[in-house]
Every structure is written in structure tokens, then in C-alpha cells.
Amino acid sequence: TKLRIQVQTSTENLAACLDQQLWANSPTSFIPHHIDELKNNTIYVTKEETKHTDILINCSPCDQVDDSNWARLLQIIPDTDHLLKQARQFYRHYQQLGYKVNSHKIG
User: Fold this and answer.
1) If we measure between CA atoms, which residue out of 7, 11, 2 comes closest to residue 22?
2) Are 55 and 71 in contact (CB under 8 A)?
């Protein structure tokens, strides 16, 4: 069974930019996906939150997820003081929802 993955952004413009970046990769590193609809692809990019995927990658640094409907949740937080402070609140919130929370510093 294929896992279904949603990549959520904070705006439609960011979803469109991410969609363009995913299409811009070389044919050997292309990531099959679709924007706004799941269709036959296992990955889709959207501004809207849905409950029909197994994994949520939340690229919206100011939006926390308020339920635990996903088998796995990845929250992307840019490295700025304000957003890192907010991420600490997300960390506690996600623990309360029952997620096993891990933090990974990238870069």
C-alpha cells in the first residue's frame, strides 16, 4: 500500500512555487505529485488541510495542526527567533495530541 502524503503551505502562492520547484528537478530526481488534488499521485501540495492522507508535511510555520489524524506529522520551522519560540509551543501541543515528537536541526 502506498502512503499518501500532503504537503501543506500557508498560501496558494507558496503551494504554486513549491509545485514549480518539484517539477523543475531533473528527470532522474523528479518527485511525482499534483497540486490541490490527490488524484493518482501519492503526494500532493495544497494550502488546504485534509484528513485523507497518511503523512502531513506542514510547511506553514505559523499554523499548528489541531488533531492527530495522521500517522506521521512533519512540521517545518524556519530558523528565526520568533518562529522558534512558536515552535516550542507546537512541540508541547503535538505531544499533548499523542505524537512522539523529535526535533532535527537542518543546516
Assistant:
1) 7
2) yes
Q: Going by C-beta distance under 8 Å and a sequence separation of 6 or more, which residues neighbour residue 17? A: none
Q: What are phi and psi of 96, to 5 degrees?
A: -65, -30
Place of cell 497540486: 35
Q: What was the pLDDT predicted at 39?
A: 63
Percent of the chain at pLDDT > 70 equals 83
* Radius of gyration (C-alpha) of the chain in whole angstroms: 14
Unique residue bearing C-alpha cell 536541526: 105
Contacts of 10 (CB under 8 A, 6+ apart): 47, 59, 60, 61, 62, 63
Mean pLDDT of 40-49: 75
